[in-house]
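B., you asked whether I could sanity-check this one before it goes into the benchmark set. Here's the sequence:
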Amino acid sequence: MNVSEAVSTRLSVRAFRDTPIPPAVLRQVLEKAARAPSGGNVQPWRLHVLGGAPLIQFKSSMRARLSTNSEPDPPEYDIYPENLWEPHRTQRFRVGEMMYALLGIPREHKAARLQWFASNFDFFGAPAAQFCFIDRRMGPPQWSDLGMYLQTVMLLLREYGLASCAQECWSRYHSTVRAFVEAPDDHLLFCGMAIGYADDSAPVNRLVSERMPLSEFATFRGI
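And here's what the prediction gave me:
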């Protein structure tokens, strides 16, 4: 698989088969991805990877927390800017409506939509998961490095025939994650990621989000 194929076939997969991932493959991907760009070679990413019994144990503890209907943790960063503006607001809601249409859940069925959202916290059935942290003292350039590392991970997973879904929703339950993986208090949880083999029979995995045409986000001069 070449880079173009990896980019074009990378999707946010939301239904996985329970087929285990060879541990050596996942380690290779995460190690190779460390060649991602990093300003000053700071390499700010810090990972906690779960599979097998530890993942089952973590999901059990998360289900216990959700069953109490407790409020999420106070946010440590804003996932989206307040009062998101156009065209970004429309793009965000459009992809949500596309997903729920594939799932057959209409807008008025809020309980069903909430039930579906809860599947995030089961990692959509993926057999492996990772949590990505960053030192709280790092600034926007290092957050950018973090994103480039994660994108490199997701593209390399495609090379190995694997799928993924980056999940910022985990940032709202950072206390549960931090306690389980024993992350230092000075590390901030950015996101989780579900990793595994896509269930190609699941309708939700037919979702291909729309992208703006090049002319709407790029200006060229002299080229």
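One thing to flag: The CA atoms of residues 15 and 201 lie 9 Å apart. Otherwise nothing jumped out at me.
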